[in-house]
Design a protein that fits this description.
Subcellular location (chain A): Membrane, Coated pit
Oligomer: heterodimer
Largest interface: A-B, 78 and 67 residues
Radius of gyration of chain A: 34 Å
Number of strands of chain A: 16
Number of domains of chain A: 6
Strand content of chain A: 5-15%
CATH class of chain B: Alpha Beta
Pfam families (chain A): Adaptin_N, Alpha_adaptin_C, Alpha_adaptinC2
CATH topology of chain B: Beta-Lactamase
Order of helices and strands of chain B: EEHEEEHHHEEHH
Family (chain A): Belongs to the adaptor complexes large subunit family.
Organism (chain A): Hevea brasiliensis
Number of domains of chain B: 1
Structural class of chain A: alpha+beta
Protein name (chain A): AP-2 complex subunit alpha
Distance between the termini of chain B: 50 Å
Chain lengths: 1023, 161
């Protein structure tokens, strides 16, 4: 037996194992670490064998969970050892200790490359394995071509090639450009003819990654995948060693079927038929057997086949067969199969025609909700949630409520949120909805977020028929001995508004209502007291004729809180006290709340957002997005605020046009399609703010008909009254102009313009927040980091950042925390990918709340055309042939531009350089002309050279002739328009042209003057 | 893809960790702490899957050792479970009825074998025979180097250096 040949290592491991306790172990480990450290320090006396031994010890200590913060260098240096045993240890330990971001790895790139291109097969394998496991972007750039060669050359043995395939997969994940070479798709297709199943398995993994990103290029692989699958399913030409429990490589079968799911359809009828034959065979021929391993392998294949059948839109008969199978699975004893049955049934819900068949299994699924395994319970919950509709909502929601009392804590939050959403979406009548939510608060108050009770209040306020019922229910709950604080909030709010509707019922006189609510006051926290005070004021107003005793009681309470330390409570107490002495005017001031504008439920929106966030490019999810939502939000209400402002849900792809960009009338076909599917453009911004807090807590304080005398007393009032009208006009509010009461510091436009020229700076600032930006651009990729700095000593909450990208940019914003703690700065990375040339600008829709101020700003993001340019010096020999070959429109466009802001030629050259258009002096013999060049990067154009020539007239500097040329008509046009815009209305950058440094060779000069506005320094000052 | 592989004993001792996605040192310790708690405390007759932070952990217990593998949420769970068992069978064949002690004292071999089975978080080789063959080739290479190092000529070279 190959026991360890390193005695020192074995002794050390034994020592550690024999330590009686953790302390002894730590002592032993520390001693060893000290020993290794000294040995490494005088490296001279270290034999390769010893070095190897110590590096292994380090790895062992590291695995035990101790910090090993030295010796990484020694591990990496072993990689360049000449002999196999040392080299091998170097490679393996390095790939365990370090991750791709580690600096030391860079040192090894050269050695690794030499091993990969060298003649020694074992070294090649070691190097490929390490790069495949921890290779990062830099490895991708310097090694991809070599790895490709190994993969496609038949002169290397399978053992090298299968490693090369997976190594390339890793590099592709780090930088998708590595396969952007001519003919790669054909090579890939050839690889699928491979006889060696090891190479084929690895290549199939690579293919899955490639097609998941872009199936278009790989159509030729589709029939080959089907052939591979046939070969496996029929067990043709499969060596014995590649069958696993009698099943021909289940892994390869799964991967092949996974790859097929990324192709939208299979058009060729023959291929389709063969595939369905294979699938049918898998579906029919799999049984639950005794041997657990055989079972696992067979079902791995079966479940993948089910997913593929679903994806292929098979005939209803086959689909029903699948559901029948799944129905069988969810009741078997084997827990894995139960779990997967439920999971796949949830996926099956996407197929409209089988939804009814799935419903037949409802009872069994509800049983699974009580399964001993939480993983299975979660799946059952998800499935119930997904299959719920109007027909079964009552049953399912009641089942969930019942389960809530016994469910484990880990699931309660999700459970209550789901119950609340289902109740709202599918309520057969609204009183049932109110019942459900109140029960929910009663049973799991800790897990019911504010959004949920805000929503109830909104429904009740907007539905007169519902008000007496809701008030009566709230009254009932107050009789219970110990109720959750959220229940106190919602019931006192409802009773404040509507208890007068109960006046004639027993136990519901104003006085009784007041008493029962006031009993709760000592038990609640400060956030609830303001709501109670409002309720008291409302009760007082509804008590007609006035009851002097009750009045005195309530006044005494107001008096008591007049000196409360909490500003909100104090203010309400003072104001209510003053108001309640106004006699008849009180009736107007404290009248019932007006109806809320109808809006999408914040809950449903939250749930949808979460789904979008997690949606990756999986076949199943891509499919899910194509399905239309069957949500039936209850909307049968009348509106107090004018005609019903039903707004279509704004999808993440909404087109945003920025008014200040003139002349961009032509949209691409995609744009137009988007516009049509989303309704008219102007509706985009008309979505009312989804934050209910602003509506509910704000107006609670004082509410009166518009124009009431108190308006000027309270700043919140004007804001509240302004809200509905602001919503109505929001559609035409141009970007940058806000109706916020908080004024920005500095000019937003100037800040934006400055950021178009540099990569870091402040995007926005007001008294509460500063938003800084730092950007890195590389070819068509960009990475922006938003720095959200809270300038206050109290937190900013309800922070929301939404990116509205134009059609040509793919943008992904990482999660923005809802709350920014006092004086804290959070960083939110934003990934940008430029798809094709366009001057449209992305917008950041940013909002937050500070105290009662809701601030919402729409800010243009400096991900503009010139960021995707790279200055490119060209010589005369390169320039002129290019210039000539691009002859005339649409590749070369010329225009005489008038109304140019006059600029000396040198400054114009500076301006061009600052847009990353590199001025190439000496190419044009006329000293009044400028020639510039740059490379533009986007997905559609790839790297594309752009050439520009400007002919100025020394006699009239307000006009010039401009010629722009590139290999892409859209690029030429967009670039020409872009330059024109810059020349006509030159942005007033913070540094005036006069202070600009002379002709910076590359972009982004850091002049000392800029240090003052350096965001890093400013933001650092905040912390 | 597989994000990481963990071997944890029933007492929570780590026997092997392999990370295919970039996790920092801190994150690694946190993941190990959280997951070993979850996995070890699961009862015996439950399914082999745990949903965890938008990912899935597929695990299986062999005697006192838990083999855990973290995969993407929509990956095929059973395929992952098959990889675990495939690995265990190869360990078993290589060590000859493997036990936890083998993996403790020969943890480096466990790493070699894993590297022959999984690269970049994807299965590389599904033939047990091929893996075993490659392992014995490695072993003989190491043996050969050792013999060379101890041969007389080499010793002389060492002395005269």
């Amino acid at each position: 037996m190959a026991l360890s040949s390193m005695r020192g290592l074995s002794v050390f491991i034994s020592d550690v194992r024999n330590c009686p306790n953790k302390e002894q172990e730590r002592l032993r480990v520390d001693k060893e670490l000290g020993n290794i450290r000294t040995r490494f320090k005088n490296e001279k006396g270290l034999t390769p064998y010893e070095k190897k031994k110590y590096v292994w010890k380090m790895l062992y200590i590291y695995m035990l969970g101790y910090d090993v913060d030295f010796g990484h260098m020694e591990a990496v240096s072993l990689i360049s050892a000449p002999k196999y045993p040392e080299k091998q240890v170097g490679y393996i330990v390095t790939s365990c200790l370090l991750n791709e971001n580690h600096d030391f790895l860079r040192l090894a790139i050269n050695t690794v490359r030499n091993d990969i291109i060298g003649r020694n097969e074992t070294f090649q394998c070691l190097a490929l394995t390490m790069v495949g496991n921890i290779g990062g972007r830099e490895f991708a750039e310097s090694l991809a071509a070599d790895v490709q060669k190994l993969l496609i050359s038949s002169s290397y043995r399978p053992l090298v090639r299968k490693k090369a395939a997976l190594c390339l997969l890793r590099l592709y994940r780090k930088n998708p450009d590595v396969v952007n070479i001519d003919g790669w798709a054909d090579r890939m297709a050839q690889l699928l003819d491979e006889r060696d199943l090891g190479v084929l398995t690895s290549s199939m993994s690579l293919l899955v990654a490639l097609v998941s990103n872009n199936h278009e290029a790989y159509w030729s692989c589709l029939p080959k995948c089907v052939r591979v699958l046939e070969r496996l399913a029929r067990n043709q030409d499969i060596p014995q060693e590649y069958t696993y429990y009698g099943i021909p490589s289940p892994w390869l079968q799964v991967k092949t079927m996974r790859a097929l799911q990324y192709f939208p359809t299979i058009e060729d009828p023959n291929t389709r038929r063969s595939l369905f034959e294979v699938l049918q065979r898998i579906l029919m021929g799999t049984d639950v057997v005794k041997n657990v391993n055989k079972n696992n392998a067979a079902h791995a294949v079966l479940f993948e086949a089910l997913a593929l059948v679903m994806h292929l839109d098979a005939e209803k008969e086959m689909m029903s067969q699948c559901v029948a199978l799944l129905g069988k699975f969810i009741s078997v004893r084997e827990p894995n199969i139960r779990y997967l049955g439920l999971e796949n049934m949830t996926r099956m819900l996407m197929v409209a025609e089988v939804q009814d068949i799935i419903k037949r299994h409802q009872a069994q699924i509800i049983t699974s909700l009580k399964d001993p395994d939480i993983s299975i319970r979660r799946r059952a919950l998800d499935l119930l949630y997904g299959m719920c509709d109007v027909s079964n909502a009552k049953d399912i929601v009641e089942e969930l409520l019942q389960y809530l009392s016994t469910a484990d804590f880990a699931m309660r939050e999700e459970l209550s949120l789901k119950a609340a959403i289902l109740a709202e979406k599918f309520a057969p009548d609204l009183s049932w909805y109110v019942d459900v939510i109140l029960q929910l608060i009663d049973k799991a108050g800790d897990f019911v977020s504010d959004d949920i009770w805000f929503r109830v209040v909104q429904f009740v306020t907007n539905n007169e028929d519902l008000q007496p019922y809701a008030a009566a229910k709230a009254r009932e709950y107050l009789d219970k001995p110990a109720i959750h604080e959220t229940m106190v909030k919602v019931s006192s709010y409802l009773l404040g508004e509507f208890s007068h509707l109960l006046a004639r019922r027993p136990g519901s006189s104003p006085k009784e209502i007041f008493n029962i609510i006031h009993e709760k006051l000592p038990t609640v926290s400060t956030s609830t007291i303001p709501i109670l005070l409002s309720t008291y004021a409302k009760i007082l107003m509804h008590t007609q004729p006035p009851d002097p005793e009750l009045q005195n009681q309530i006044w005494a309470i107001f008096n008591k809180y007049e000196s409360c330390i909490d500003a909100e409570i104090q203010q309400r107490a003072v104001e209510y006290f003053a108001l309640s002495r106004k006699g008849a005017a009180l009736m107007d001031i404290l009248a019932e709340m007006p109806k809320f504008p109808e809006r999408q439920s914040a809950l449903i929106k939250k749930a949808e957002d979460a789904e979008i966030d997690t949606a990756e490019q999986s076949a199943i999810k891509l499919r899910a997005q194509q399905q239309t939502s069957n949500a039936l939000v209850v909307t049968d209400q009348c509106y107090a605020n004018g005609p019903s402002p039903i707004v279509p849900a704004v999808g993440p792809l909404t087109l945003v046009k920025v008014p200040s960009m003139s002349g961009s009338e032509e949209h691409t076909a995609v744009d137009q399609a988007l516009t049509q599917s989303n309704g008219t453009l102007t509706k985009v911004d008309s979505q009312p703010p989804s934050d209910l807090l602003g509506d509910l807590l704000g107006p609670l304080a004082i509410e009166g008909p518009p124009g009431a005398a108190v308006q000027s007393e309270h700043s919140a009032v004007t804001e509240v009254e302004g809200a509905p009208s602001a919503v109505d006009v929001a559609a035409i509010v141009p970007v940058g102009e806000q109706t916020n009461s908080v004024q920005p510091i500095g000019n937003i436009n100037e800040r934006f313009n400055a950021l178009c020229l540099k990569d870091s700076g402040v995007l926005y600032e007001d008294p509460y927040i500063q938003i800084g930006i730092k950007a890195e651009w590389q070819a068509q990729h960009g990475r922006l980091v938003l720095f959200l700095g809270n300038k206050n000593t109290s937190p900013l909450d309800s922070v929301q950042a939404l990116i509205l990208p134009p059609a040509h940019l793919k943008m992904e914003l990482s999660l923005v925390p809802e709350i920014i703690p006092p004086r804290a700065q959070v960083q939110c990375p934003l990934e940008v990918l430029n798809l094709h040339p366009s001057r449209d600008v992305a917008v950041l829709d940013f909002s937050y709340k500070f105290g009662t101020n809701m601030v919402n700003v729409k800010l243009r993001l400096p991900a503009v055309l010139n960021k995707f340019l790279q200055p490119m010096p060209v010589s005369a020999e390169e320039f002129f042939p290019q210039w000539r070959s691009l002859s005339g429109p649409p590749l070369k466009l010329q225009e005489v531009v008038r109304g140019v802001r006059p600029l000396p030629l040198e400054e114009m050259a500076n301006l061009f350089n600052s847009f990353r258009l590199m001025i190439c002096p000496g190419l044009d013999p006329n000293p009044n002309n400028l020639v510039a060049s740059a490379t533009f990067y986007s997905e559609s154009t790839r790297a594309m050279l752009c050439l520009i020539r400007i002919e100025t007239d020394p006699a009239d500097r307000t006009q010039l002739r401009m010629t722009v040329a590139s290999g892409d008509p859209a690029l030429t046009f967009e670039l020409k328009e872009f330059i024109k815009e810059q020349l006509v209305s030159i942005p007033t950058a913070p540094r005036g042209p006069t202070t600009a440094p002379p002709a910076p060779p590359v972009v982004q000069p850091t002049s000392p003057a800029m240090a003052l506005t350096d965001p890093g320094a400013m933001l650092a000052g905040l912390l | 893809m597989i994000h990481f592989v963990l071997l944890i004993s029933r007492q929570g001792k780590v026997r092997l960790t392999k990370w295919y996605s970039p996790y920092s040192q801190k994150e690694r310790s946190k993941v190990i702490r959280e997951l070993s708690g979850i996995v070890i405390n699961r009862g015996p007759k439950l399914c082999n899957f745990v949903e965890w932070k938008g990912l899935k952990v597929v695990y299986r217990r062999y005697a006192g050792l838990y083999f855990c593998m973290c995969i993407d949420e929509d990956d095929n769970e059973l395929e992952g479970l098959d990889i675990i068992h495939h690995y265990v069978e190869i360990l078993d064949r290589y060590f000859g009825s493997v036990c936890e002690l083998d993996l403790i004292f020969n943890f480096h071999k466990a790493y070699y074998i894993l590297d022959e089975i999984v690269i970049a978080g994807e299965l590389q080789e599904s033939s047990k025979r091929t893996v075993i063959r490659l392992m014995s080739a490695h072993d003989s290479l190491v043996e050969m180097a050792k013999e060379q190092a101890s041969s007389i000529s080499n010793m002389i070279a060492q002395v005269t250096k």
